[in-house]
Amino acid sequence: MPILSVNKLTKSFGGLTAVSNVNMELEQGELVGLIGPNGAGKTTLFNLLTGVYVPSSGTITLTKDGKSKPIHGLKPYTICKEGLARTFQNIRLFKDLTVLDNVRIAMNQNVKYGLASSFFHLPSHRKEEEKLLHDAIELLKIFKLDHKKDELAKNLPYGEQRHLEIARALATKPILLLLDEPAAGMNPAETAELTELIGWIREKFNLTILLIEHDMSLVMKICERIYVLDYGVVIANGTPEEIKNNKRVIEAYLGEEISNV
Amino acid sequence: MEQFLQQIVNGISLGSIYALIALGYTMVYGIIKLINFAHSDVYMLGAFVGYFCMTTLRLNFFLSLLASMAFCTVLGVVIEKVAYKPLRNSTRIAALITAIGVSLFLQYTTMAITGPDVRSYPAMSGFLAQSVSLGSIRITMQQIIILAVTIVLMVVLQFIVKKTRIGRAMRAVSLDQDAAELMGININATISFTFALGSALAGAAGILVGVYYNSINPLMGTLPGLKAFVAAVFGGIGLIPGAMIGGYFIGIVEVLVSGYGNSMYRDAVVFAILILILIIKPAGLLGKNVREKV
Amino acid sequence: MDKIRKNKTLMKLIYLVLTYAVVQVLISTGIITYYLQDILTTICINIILAVSLNLITGFTGQFSLGHAGFMSIGAYVCAIITLRMSTTFGFIIGAIAGAVAAALVGCLVGLPTLRLKGDYLAIATLGMSEIIRIIAVNLEITNGAAGLSSIPQFVNWVWLFVFTAGTILIISNFIRSSHGRACISVREDEIAAEAMGINSTRYKVIAFTMGAFFAGIAGALYASYFYVIKPDTFGFQKSIDVLIIVVFGGMGSLSGSVISAFVLALINTLLQSLAEVRMILYAVILVVIMIFRPQGLMGSKELSVSTLSKVGQIFQPRKGGDK
């Protein structure tokens, strides 16, 4: 049973169909790439999966602990609670908050104490907060950010902001992680390090990962399967080898190259 | 039925005044995204200047109208330059508080000069004091003047915004300030011009309200100002036709509620309509919802 | 770690008791006159209003212009109850009922309107408080525009202190909890917060309801201390006054709100003798502050017990030098 199954998903804005009849299946533990020329609808697809947009038609089904559940049309926070977390193409950290608070906020949904406890800082609040702090720091250690926990997110270097965004997404305890251009703006060395990190967190947190990326070296290196989107339509799907040699994919990309010149 | 038509006639007069004030709110909001709370006091000062012209200077109505529009134009530009321009890059709330500060300043300065008392407007004389009867509906000359002045001003405004160079600049700046600047549009001049236009209309509204209600005082601006703002939001803030439709709608509703329901509740009804429209269609009657890009 | 925390709590307690005792002594010895007591009460009520509005606007980022509406609900409910039950117990019931009523209205109004953003929400809340005011003008139980008078006076320094300190404590505890952080995340970036599992509507409504609750308390204190209330007491101007305290102190700084309530009361008192010129100067000061320090006195920083002790340390060496 696939962990995520997308069936005939369509989204149109007025007359423009940004995502059209997309079918997609992700198996537990897979690392899948989503590529395509600019404006192909990749981020729109992410926004549909995470509930930012409501699909015009089609279904999205998430399977967790053997139970399948439709998640299309649910609110973003509900989808997050179901186990789907994301990062953003144009980093959306809580810029004016500390690194630690960025992570702790993402842990909010699993906090067990109630409002009354927060008003009076009852023992249940203290116990949970200590655990929260401990978990947050453990998570930050993975990304080598623990020594910067009290810095404001906006003061981190760019690469570390990308890392913090992934750490924040992991803090929601997801089963499926969506990364929107995680290597954008990174140099080759940073990208190589990130590539390794993504592979590592997949093992460590038992994740399924879907990532949008323009850096082909990263995609070809770590993705087991690739979906190619063009004009909102899936034009190919297969292993990196198959995609490399796919005629339609080459055309789609060449087309873009020419129009960019 | 006749009573109803009479109410509609009254509502149109009141609505004209709201529409004129609402235009100032909506243009300023459209261009710098500021709820210009001081606008209601510019309009109050328009009423006072009109009063001064008609009593002390013994000018006729039309000259007084022009004088109060001219005064408010200057006032609006000065307010923008002194108080709002330094805050153009600060937070919205800081700008809003400044607007409130300017509003208080105008109210209490006026009060210090003229005293807090209510003054009654000079009675209209000559043909302005007459009225026309259509069947049993009575239309006073004042109401006709109010409507005529409003229509003339709106036509002029539409012409400026749609057909002139500066009007095109206004529309460009309200769409995208940075892009407009890159295209060589003088942002400061355009914003000043917007304030000038809006304030001129408020000056006209001020003198018309003096004529309509017969009394003025330094704190008279707040409530009609709020209602005019409601009118702007109702029609879709930032949109000139929206402010006109909103103004007439609010004016007519207010008169109908006073006429048929409980006049004590007429303001409550106006605000209830505001909340409803915000919940049902937050961008207003003519507005389009814009979603944040993710 | 635990010890530090206990120490901090102890320090806080000492400061609290000290503040209470010093003022109590000053009142008993007559150094704080009746006139000064009026000012003190106004300051305390303004602190409660500002701190609670700061929760809504400064911390959760929801722009409200209707705080006076909630205050008036608290004031009227408390007044109506104490007029019929003129005992301390009646006052407590009245204050709580007033706060709960305000919170209920806050919740009911908040649910649909909090979907609105920025200025739209501000205008909707402004409309809401105007509607509350107009209802108060028209109802019989509120005695219309004349308002209620000879409301039994129960509020003294003890009650003021308990309610003011309680409000600050609960709100500051709340924002230093996971729920409070969720509110702050809504202010920072609502879309990112939702993507991280934060139900933004829920937290907005919580902040709004809490803010309304404490505004209701402030209203109850007002009614019971000044024993006369009119619908116009709680007009648009009152909401603006509270907002000014919050912005002047710093959005997202509770200690800023407290300091600002004091400073503005001081300015107001000093200008009292100047009559109309007072409001003109007040307006000018407001504009000047916004132009030169738009982030307010404190920005979003807090004055904490540890900064207080740092201030204390500055004075210590001098003591040593004197010897």
Descriptive account of the structure:
The complex is a heterotrimer of chains A (261), B (294) and C (323). Chain A has helices at 42-49, 76-82, 99-106, 115-120, 123-142, 158-171, 188-205, 216-222, 240-244, 247-260, and strands at residues 4-13, 16-26, 31-35, 57-64, 67-70, 84-86, 176-180, 208-212, 225-230, 233-238. Chain A has 261 residues and is of the alpha/beta class. A 6-stranded mixed sheet of chain A has the order 6-7-8-3-9-10, with helices on both faces. In chain A, α7 links the parallel β7 (176-180) and β8 (208-212). The radius of gyration of chain A is 19 Å and the shape is globular. The model of chain A is unreliable at 257-261 (pLDDT under 50). Chain B has 294 residues and is mostly helical. Chain B has one domain (2-221). Helices cover 72% and strands 4% of the residues of chain B. In chain B, the strands form 2 sheets. In chain B, strands 1-4 form a two-stranded antiparallel ribbon. In chain B, β2 (131-134) and β3 (137-140) form a beta hairpin. In chain B, α1 runs antiparallel to α10, α2 (39-55) crosses α8 and α6 crosses α8 (187-213). By secondary structure, chain C is mainly alpha-helical. Chain C has a single domain, classed as ABC transporter involved in vitamin B12 uptake, BtuC, CATH 1.10.3470. Chain C starts with a helix and ends with a helix.
Major sheet of chain A: size, sense and barrel closure?
6 strands, mixed
CATH class of chain C: Mainly Alpha
The assigned structural class of chain A equals alpha/beta
Termini separation of chain C comes to 36 Å
Radius of gyration of chain A: 19 Å
Strand content of chain C: under 5%
The quaternary state of the protein chains shown equals heterotrimer
The amount of helix of chain C comes to over 70%
- Can you write the helix and strand succession of chain A as a string? EEEHEEHEHHHHEHEHEEHH
Number of domains of chain A: 2
Q: Beta-sheet strand percentage of chain A?
A: 15-25%
Please tell me the overall pLDDT of chain C.
Answer: 90
The level 1 CATH classification of the largest domain in chain A is Alpha Beta
